[in-house]
Amino acid sequence: MALSHLKSSSSRSNLVKPLAAAFSLRRLISTSTDPITIETSVPFATHRCDPPSRTVETNPQELLSFFRVMATMRRMEIAADSLYKAKLIRGFCHLYDGQEAVAVGMEAAITKKDSIITAYRDHCTFLGRGGTLLEVFSELMGRQGGCSKGKGGSMHFYKKDSGFYGGHGIVGAQVPLGCGLAFAHKYNKDDAVAFALYGDGAANQGQLFEALNISALWDLPVILVCENNHYGMGTAEWRAAKSPAYYKRGDYVPGLKVDGMDAFAVKQACKFAKEHALKSGPIILEMDTYRYHGHSMSDPGSTYRTRDEISGVRQERDPIERIRKLILAHDLATEKELKDIEKEVRKQVDEAIAEAKESPMPEPSELFTNVYVKGLGVEAYGADRKEVRAVLP
Amino acid sequence: MVMSTSLRRCGRRLVFSVFNNREFSTTCQGSKVIQHHEQLQETGKSLNLCSAINQALHIALETDPRSYVFGEDVSFGGVFRCTKGLAEKFGKKRVFNTPLCEQGIVGFGIGLAAMDNRAIAEIQFADYIFPAFDQIVNEAAKFRYRSGNQFNCGGLTIRTPYGAVGHGGHYHSQSPEAFFCHVPGIKVVVPRSPREAKGLLLSCIRDTNPVIFFEPKWLYRLAVEEVPEHDYMLPLSEAEVIREGSDITLVGWGAQLSIMEQACFDAEKEGISCELIDLKTLIPWDKETVETSVRKTGRLLISHEAPVTGGFGAEISASIVERCFLRLEAPVARICGLDTPFPLVFEPFYIPTKNKIVDAIKATVNY
Asked: Which residues form a coiled coil (chain B) (predicted)?
């Protein structure tokens, strides 16, 4: 669901507030763009660069839209969990709940001309890029209406028109691709950058270091975003990484450690990183974040960490609760109004699921399409070379 | 009967007729370590394939202090629980997690094995083996050759789960065995059942050549049979006739054998007698057993999940045509995966199902 769409739908909602400069009086939050300044939760830690300011400028409209988008993401992932357990989603499914601030903050700092490439935990990044709930659920359930026509599934979301290069299933494999995207941006002189996202587990893959060297050598406008949720599948970061300070992993490449649970810190860091990348090449952003779910649906997520740890993060650092508190502190909406937004979001998710279930499965002939470029005329053989033979469409 | 006893347990999905256990005896002549099947049965305990592998790993670590188990998440028991309890019993110095780095895991294993250790590496899914492809093909396979036999990594065994599970999608379902069968210097082994898995894995671990051991993940929990508790090995490069017949020879390996077995039952109802061979070791493979069978039946069908083009079935087909050209009464049939990426929602169309095999059996016999 696009940010713009969310804004318009929030304006339709009942969040009409009186207006006041000091925020003591209510005003029309959905249209207000009067600046509010917010301090990021913790200072940025840096490696070979000066930190950006901790003071971030925002406005009521953005705050409310952050809340709504993150609530949508959260609800969507919870719903995906149920659909998977009901066996309506098959294959693999990696959920993003807990990490929403990264997708939302990043999107707020960049434009759709910039490209994003990520791994398999891609549902919310896709939503942030302007994908719709219907496309998400259709794809998850392998329906025609999905963003990859139902042919990809959970790990393979793409959205070409807004520079979302997906959706990659092999750990770490997408990062060198991000360098290629960045080279194309640079060559085309389009003043855009590539964001290559990977996890703390992937940070130990050899190809990451190859990508770092190439991008630094050629000054590519690429931002390597390490979404550090602290667990590579079932392995805690300190068990897998000699140095869990991923922002320093680039050695000669500057880095920034960001509170990935604070959407505004993420926004500030991404804005800073984009400017840096355009001017002087790659930079690493380590987003200190947390996933509430297990690695995938086959991991209960409770064997290698304590329930206390999870509930502690939920209480202390939850990205949505942070925004909720900010909204309440600035008196932009009441608790009830925020609850209403969540209810509304829940309804939208349910409707999208119902609609997605109506979407038909792909035509069987689609099995043979897109293997090569259309009309190449390659002959494919069926199970038996003698009986089934077809020219690929 | 190995597979049918085990797979009957999964009820609705696979329907089998009950067979005498003896018919699927695990032949084990030719090696002093191997016990006769009858003896294996006496001490056997009912195990699934995952536990059988776990038991083999326990034995491997117990019997050789210079053996090590490592890979992503193995010290917690691994994603499929095959390495459960190993770290607790043998310590974190011999059973340990690696970071997420397949190339590093295999390269590390080669180095460890080069110093006369038994390096048992796990690649979490066969679909993830490709980052390690270079290490396997260029380092492991050629170490002995290019050093004029000064060095080798014969102690290296790479375990990796392969194959379809019904809903694995693009990156958790592939069968990449054929890529590795193109590489002289390594062995490729695929077991079909718990008992086979235990005996073959121990052989692989103790083999003096680097081996890739593909585990049929579909059968981890599904296949259950009596597995002897003691230490035994099954010979590599020895195929086994698991069902005798006279009209057509069927060759397969791993999980596909259970599908082929069902096809044999169906064909039998129509009066076609099928001989079913488990190849077990794909490279170097047992040409003689297959040849002897094809000389008898005059027909050959090969089935695997990997795409038909360039699959290992092609190699078997070519070799048997060379050897049995004048005995063949029909072209060799290959019932395999389609020439497409492994699909998500289209998996039922892609996989070489029982009916596809039955159709091909009939077409070949009536050629």
From this structure: none
